[in-house]
Recover the amino acids of this structure.
């Protein structure tokens, strides 16, 4: 929930280089260094472009770009700005298909999925050297919009994700660094089509082996869960529907919930179970609008974006103290579906994401609050 549609994308060619932007810090201005970039070959029409989803300690960024045919291709951008493109063998070449990386660890290994010519999902892990190993969960379905969807890789190379079976039901899994895959289901998860157990994308598995996810019950309602390394579950609910977005090394769970109107709000749940809700000032209150956190780092710093009453997106970060700062990338559009989307941050608080311009084209960005 809250994590990218299959149409976000990045080139070594920078657009404007480093730009200083102002951030609202209560009533203070805050200087933030932003570098924008595009991947060569990224499409230049509405809904296409460069999408950056994961930033590792050290500053490497991973994401994908959609070409002019709306086919997705993976990329890694080094801290020096060098972009390496890649595709998983077997990835489809029609619109909506291709290779979609989701998570990059500090060692340079990554995971994600590819969509084949039959619109089936398959998992992959890519080593720092660029070797791609494909895998599927044993119970994954082989029909369209079924299959294996890895979401996160931690520093030791463990992977957490979900798979959709032949009945359209979701199940969680954890895959060891040696390739052993174990499936699991959260207690209370429904068994009908569209129901079941899911993990978050990007940050769902911390280095201690705890997994953050959500499950859809038999009534179609979403609830959060945390799975301990030994397999024990903690489940909880916030608002009208609870969705997982990540868990950090301290065990702080990041999520969002929906209110009675269908608007989104963020929350963090401490390892002790204390839940703190938050919303960004200026976030819209209608269905589909509101606050959509995306990532939490080891210090408890949250990044994400909010949708205002016009449908435009604005990025934010939130400190563990509760202080929220908002920012935008110069060149971001201001119409519905446009704006600035922050998706990931590393332990230094450096952020990655994309902005959508006034023509609907996406571009990657790197935002560093430690530079002026």
């Amino acid at each position: 929930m809250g994590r990218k549609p299959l149409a976000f994308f990045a080139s070594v060619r920078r657009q404007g280089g480093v730009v200083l932007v102002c951030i609202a810090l209560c009533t203070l201005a805050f200087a933030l260094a932003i570098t924008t970039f595009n991947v060569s070959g990224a499409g230049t029409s509405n809904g296409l472009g460069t999408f950056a989803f994961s930033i590792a300690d050290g500053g490497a960024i991973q994401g994908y770009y959609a070409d002019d045919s709306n086919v997705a291709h993976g990329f890694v951008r080094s801290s020096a700005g060098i972009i390496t493109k890649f595709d998983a063998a077997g990835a489809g070449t029609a619109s909506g298909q291709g290779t979609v990386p989701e998570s990059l660890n500090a060692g340079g290994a990554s995971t994600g999925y590819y969509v084949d010519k039959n619109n089936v999902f398959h998992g992959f892990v890519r080593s720092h050297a660029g070797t791609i190993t494909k895998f599927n969960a044993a119970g994954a379905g082989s029909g369209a919009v079924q299959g294996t969807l890895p979401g996160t890789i931690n520093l030791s190379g463990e992977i957490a994700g979900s798979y959709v079976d032949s009945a359209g039901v979701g199940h969680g899994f954890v895959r060891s660094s040696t390739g052993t895959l174990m499936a699991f289901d959260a207690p209370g998860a429904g068994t009908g089509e569209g129901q079941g157990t899911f993990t978050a994308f990007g940050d769902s598995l911390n280095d201690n082996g705890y997994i953050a996810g959500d499950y859809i019950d038999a009534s179609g309602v979403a609830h959060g869960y945390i799975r301990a390394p030994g397999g024990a579950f903690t489940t909880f609910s916030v608002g009208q529907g609870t969705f997982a977005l990540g868990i950090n090394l301290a065990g702080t769970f990041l999520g969002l919930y929906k209110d009675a109107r269908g608007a989104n709000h963020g929350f963090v749940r401490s390892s002790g179970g204390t839940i703190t809700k938050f919303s960004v000032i200026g976030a819209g209150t209608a269905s589909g609008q509101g606050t959509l956190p995306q990532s939490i780092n080891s210090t408890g710093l949250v990044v994400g974006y909010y949708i205002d009453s016009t449908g435009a997106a604005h990025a934010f970060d939130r400190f563990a103290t509760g202080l929220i700062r908002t920012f935008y990338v110069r060149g971001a559009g201001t119409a519905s579906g446009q704006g600035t989307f922050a998706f990931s941050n590393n332990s230094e608080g450096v952020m990655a994401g994309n902005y959508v311009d006034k023509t609907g084209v996406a571009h990657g960005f790197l935002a560093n609050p430690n530079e002026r």
Q: What stands out?
A: The chain has one domain: 13-368. Residues 1-29 have pLDDT under 50 and may be disordered. The chain is about 0% helix and 50% strand. The radius of gyration is 19 Å.
